[in-house]
Amino acid sequence: MSGSLPREPSSSAGPSGRRRTWAELLAGRVKKQKYNPEKGQKLKDSAVHLLRCHQNLNDLLLEVEDPQYKSLCLSKLIDCDSAGEHTDCSISFIGSALQDQALRLGVPVGILSARMFAGCVEQVCAEPSNPVLLNAEQRKKLSSLLDIAQYLLTHNMFSRLSFCQELWKAQNSLLLEAVWRLHAQNVVNLQELLESHPDTQAMATWLFGNLCLLCEQTDASCPSTDVAEAMLSGLVQLLVLRGFQENLALKRTVTPEKMPQVAIDVLQRMSVFALDTLAAGRLDTSDHKAVRGWFGVYSGRSCCGMIGVDSLKRFFSHTLTQILTHNPVLKVSDAIQMQKEWSFAKTHPLLTTLYCRLFVMLSPEESISHLKEVLEMQEVNWQRVLSCVSTLVTCFPEAQQLVKDWVACLMTRAFESYHLDNMVTAFLVVRQAALEGPSIFPSYADWFKASFGSSHGYHGCSKKALVFLLKFLSDLVPWEDPRYMQVHILHPPLVPDKYRSLLMDYVSLAKTRLADLKVSLENMGLYKTSSSSEDIAEPHNQAIQDVERAIVVFEHKGRIPEPVMEASIFRRPYYLSHFLPALLTPRVLPVVPDSRMAFIETLKRANKIPSSLYSVYSQACATAKEKQCDNAIPGTRTEPTCAEGPLGPLTAALEELRALMTDPTQYDVISAQVAVISERLGAALGRSKDDSSLERLKIRLNILAPRLEGQDQVVVDLLLKAFCQNLMAASSFVPPERQSPWAALFVRTLCGHMLFPAVLARLCQLLRHQGPNLSTPHILGLAALAVHLGESRSMLPEVDLSPPAPTGSCPVPKFLNSLLSCCTRESLLFSMKFCTAAISYSLCKFSSQPHDTLHSYLSPGLVKKFQFIVFRLFPEARAPCSPEDTAGLAWRPLYLPSADWQSAAFSLWRQSSFQELLKETEFHLTYRDWLQLELEIQPEADILSDTERQDFHQWAIHEHYLPAPSASGGCDGDLEVACTVLVSELMDFFQSSRNYNHPENSELVLGGRTGNEDVLSRLQEMAVDLELEQGCALPHTQPTSQGHFIFRVFRRRLQALSSETGVASSLRRQHELLMCKRLLLRLPSSYLVGIPQLGQTLNCEEFFHLVNSELRNFCCHGSILTHDITVHFFRGLLNACFHSQDPSSTVNLTLTECQSKCPVILTSALYWWSSLEPVLCSRWKKCFQNTLPRELQRLQESQQFASNFLSSDSASPAPSPAWVSAAALYFAVREVRKENIKRQLKKLDCEREELLVSLLFFSLMGLISSYLTPPVDTAESLKAVDICAEVLMCLKRKKVSWLVLFQLTETDARLGYLLRLAPDQHTRLLPFAFYSLLSYFTEDAIIREEAFLRTAVDMYLKLIQLFVDGETRLQGQSRPQGNPVQLITEAQVFLLQLIPQCPKQSFSNMTELLAGREDCDPEVSAALLRRQQANPNFDLYQEPHLF
């Protein structure tokens, strides 16, 4: 370098006068300082930096007059036309040339190469075809340069700092892509490049302008979109990383604060530019394209990756603050007036999309917290704040409760500090959220009533709080929408009477304002609240909407809606002048009354329709019908059509949504388009989505015959068709997991309208009644709809089915599952298609989520039904899947026209992700689940043949579920468990309302449906196997704590019904017992008696308990069990004798046990003896070749005694036991004609006392049965009375006490067994029988019987109690003597006449008898007590001394 610089005189000369060299000067300084290596290195670095910063390379090179430099040009050494073809030799040659030239010029090679390279980059960027992007040719040239630069960097022949300085000199011609590629190829870091710019403000301006241009290039219509998007994403990542990262360790520049300031400045400029563009409304311009591209950087794919979550959150929070505080020129009064225009549907789609992306990163909790902070600390743009609230509550359901809590906090703080800012914010926020409808947020009216409509409201703490509220509301009057004033007037705050004048001042002010606006208070409909952003409708139109909504609510609730009742009382002008005329619009009334007619009739019965108005309506309807008949043309029919007007905009909006399905670049605007559909849907129905009645009601639906109004069906079909078409269109481009959330938003729109019950009714029609006829697109669309309804289950009401479901109301996913039937071939194939489509869609759509969350979207019943169908249809599926039997997801081929559903179903079954799903406990198809589905199969319409079905049953029971562990739904190898579950499910099936297909089968008898016969056969086979398995010894022959499984099932089910009371529960219990009995008849008779223990005795305890506790009360008439169960018991008894060492002893011991433990079996055997005896005798003689056992002979003898008693003048003595002979005699007497009864029963005088008392008991039971058993036969009732009377007379003649029959208890050792011979209802009705015989009580006998008065009084009080409890209602229709009231009157008169005639000793302990029952009949009670306390000369009719 010394040789190239001009020499100047030196001021430093040596002693000899010559100049000292540079080395001598340095050497002199070294001598003066102590050598320090660290200082030397520092000095060297400073010197190099000084030279680099202040050396003018241009001046330096101009001083050189070497012509070789002028001829040295890097562009000539690099053949750009052959870019990309440079070899290592050519690149190294360039490096060598640069080194030689630098050596010749005396310039560092790094500085020389940087200057040369900067010039070449400038040449590459010359004459650009795009403001920020290179063309293909330029990219090739730049790529060659980058290769050379990387070589030079590797060999330390390139100065980055010099290159950056030289590059910025050509800033105006520099293209952003060239800068980006320098960064991407690690030639020079972008941060280093930006830091090296001498003017920070100019550099920020240049970068902002280029970013705007780059955002324009991200539009789909521009070429090189992918390059532009990659550049934009990378630049934003760098700016966010440097501008919003707390850790400064990566910032290695000399001025570390420069880059963060530039990054924040550029990002802030971009946000302001975007917000200004949106505010100006410049659509279809380059600025609008730039805004769309800029907002795209907030998506997850652009921001996630290299940037930490904390940095992203700080950036997003900063952006949210900018949005909320941008251009805060609107006042609160402006917000109050204009906020209805800032709803989610009316906000620019780009802005709502940006909000959603911000909220996804920040979470709703953080977003609301940040919103609070900004509102408290800064001036805000109210339009942005309120549109932010709308987006938050609309797109994030979890934010709804957060907003409610925020509003509550604001209100509490407002009334604590009387701070208007909190009050204003709360009212604005709650009104804005309410604009989005009740499915998202409660209506403003509901919130206002909840906040101020009770004494616990915010204003209820003091007068100051009340004044504060009313002052605030008064201040709002000049600006707020009329709807809010209507709410305040119709639902005013609750105030004490002494402050009523304050409220009336506000009401007067609000009414005056409404009058100025020419808005009537009555214009507010019954359901229309301030939640709606629509204009106020005319009263007539508003009334029509109210009528339609009231009818819908009435249809689902079954009674007059509360708003209608309130209007009929408190808003009579609107009710009479607008609502009723709209409701009573004349029309031709349908033959079958519809919901409108039912509603009108209900109002009329409630006196809510004036008679004159109703008469005019009826006459007008009749006139309309006459005109229709006059104008009718034979053979033609007018179909109702839907007006094109209201459906036109809705159809157009649905078509626009379908167009967006095929354009992935438009996914961001789908949510806004769905909001538009929601608005137009409300307009098409004439209803607003703000009605909150749906979310408070359960949906009532008749599953057998779902009905829809004509208009509703047209709209629902339009929506369902659009959903199916959208799904097919979207699936033809991308699979479900890559689609936008359009489906979930669409379903939420359906759920948020009062139309949703109609949607469910239409789904019921399609899936249950028309399923096999649906096409593939319909099946796919409805299956996906079912999945998304499951996703939204938390916001859906439950469904009440008719006929009622076994578990009551059910959630929507379970309801949809119940619509899929497998009972026939056609329905099973349709269910297979639907389940395949739904499961495949779920596995694709939510593939990124864990399987344990899939039950939130996918009904477990659907998965179980699919397993059941696959097991039935594919025998190969019954074997475990091998590891290689896995296939791809089955969704994509399903929407093709040639879809093979069975192949798709089996492919889904073998799919590994589905098999993983089945490992979840909730999706196990258990043995009980399998039985429930198999019971519904109808063999005559089954897809399997009889043989195939039997093989399937054998595999399912014995190979699959019997050996399976209980944890997976099996039986642990226990055959008794398998039988128990099968019996329980059989009874459940017949007791439940799952038999929707056979509503006419009112009896639901076991086996009445052929679909159950095969399953019942499996039970019989298993029962036999169980006996053989246990060595021909049933479980209850070896007593266990639980008993025999069949009786254990009965006991558990009957105990579950024991807590219920009333007629309905009694009928259910009777039905349950009917099923129990019929199952017993289908099982081996040995189940009733068991197998002899110790060779002789049988264990019948459980059967005896069933008879005594249940069958005796519900399954017998009088004292008789039915023929079938009686014969089954004796058949089991004879069968048990085959296993006994002494058959006769076994029979004798068992029947002897019956006498003491279950006597009704013996009386039943006597009643059916004519058909039972031949079978018993024949089988006994054939098997045992000897005479009948002694106890059977006793039954024969009793029957013979009864026959002889009636056939001869003299009767033989009655055999023992006497009650058995009495039963046989009673059954025989019942067959005697009425006129012969007295003659035949005169012979009773010769019989024993015990037989006569027992005979009277049976006669009394027969009398009660004649009154209870329909149809009522008066002749039979009179004959029963005669029998009782004759037996009673005989007892009186023999002076035998018969009153004991009316005072029987279980502990009575002598006659207590009689109570086990009759139903409990019969014994409770003994008072009725007692007073039915009133005319046969003779006065002398009565007075002589000391216990008669006590018994008569007890029976009278019990008779009154029976009447009060309603147990005499049947007797009132059948008793020949009159109704129960007449009988009670006769009994009262009888007692009042009897009491004075009875001796003093008859009144002993009368006080105890009347204890607690004096109020049943005060007159009789007073007479008894006075007679008890009076002297013998007591006169009943003398004047009482009361005082």
UniProtKB/TrEMBL annotation:
<protein>
    <submittedName>
        <fullName>Fanconi anemia, complementation group A</fullName>
    </submittedName>
</protein>
<feature type="domain" description="Fanconi anaemia group A protein N-terminal">
    <location>
        <begin position="167"/>
        <end position="520"/>
    </location>
</feature>
<dbReference type="GO" id="GO:0000785">
    <property type="term" value="C:chromatin"/>
</dbReference>
<dbReference type="GO" id="GO:0045589">
    <property type="term" value="P:regulation of regulatory T cell differentiation"/>
</dbReference>
<dbReference type="InterPro" id="IPR031729">
    <property type="entry name" value="Fanconi_A_N"/>
</dbReference>
<dbReference type="InterPro" id="IPR003516">
    <property type="entry name" value="FANCA"/>
</dbReference>
<dbReference type="GO" id="GO:1905936">
    <property type="term" value="P:regulation of germ cell proliferation"/>
</dbReference>
<dbReference type="InterPro" id="IPR055386">
    <property type="entry name" value="FANCA_helical"/>
</dbReference>
<dbReference type="Pfam" id="PF24783">
    <property type="entry name" value="FANCA_arcN"/>
</dbReference>
<dbReference type="GO" id="GO:0043240">
    <property type="term" value="C:Fanconi anaemia nuclear complex"/>
</dbReference>
<dbReference type="Pfam" id="PF03511">
    <property type="entry name" value="FANCA_CTD"/>
</dbReference>
<feature type="domain" description="Fanconi anaemia group A protein C-terminal">
    <location>
        <begin position="1220"/>
        <end position="1419"/>
    </location>
</feature>
<dbReference type="GO" id="GO:0050727">
    <property type="term" value="P:regulation of inflammatory response"/>
</dbReference>
<dbReference type="GO" id="GO:0036297">
    <property type="term" value="P:interstrand cross-link repair"/>
</dbReference>
<feature type="domain" description="Fanconi anaemia group A protein arcN subdomain">
    <location>
        <begin position="646"/>
        <end position="878"/>
    </location>
</feature>
<dbReference type="GO" id="GO:2000348">
    <property type="term" value="P:regulation of CD40 signaling pathway"/>
</dbReference>
<dbReference type="GO" id="GO:0008584">
    <property type="term" value="P:male gonad development"/>
</dbReference>
<dbReference type="InterPro" id="IPR055387">
    <property type="entry name" value="FANCA_arcN"/>
</dbReference>
<dbReference type="GO" id="GO:0005654">
    <property type="term" value="C:nucleoplasm"/>
</dbReference>
<dbReference type="Pfam" id="PF24781">
    <property type="entry name" value="FANCA_helical"/>
</dbReference>
<dbReference type="GO" id="GO:0007140">
    <property type="term" value="P:male meiotic nuclear division"/>
</dbReference>
<feature type="domain" description="Fanconi anaemia group A protein helical">
    <location>
        <begin position="540"/>
        <end position="621"/>
    </location>
</feature>
<dbReference type="GO" id="GO:0008585">
    <property type="term" value="P:female gonad development"/>
</dbReference>
<dbReference type="InterPro" id="IPR055277">
    <property type="entry name" value="Fanconi_A_C"/>
</dbReference>
<dbReference type="Pfam" id="PF15865">
    <property type="entry name" value="Fanconi_A_N"/>
</dbReference>
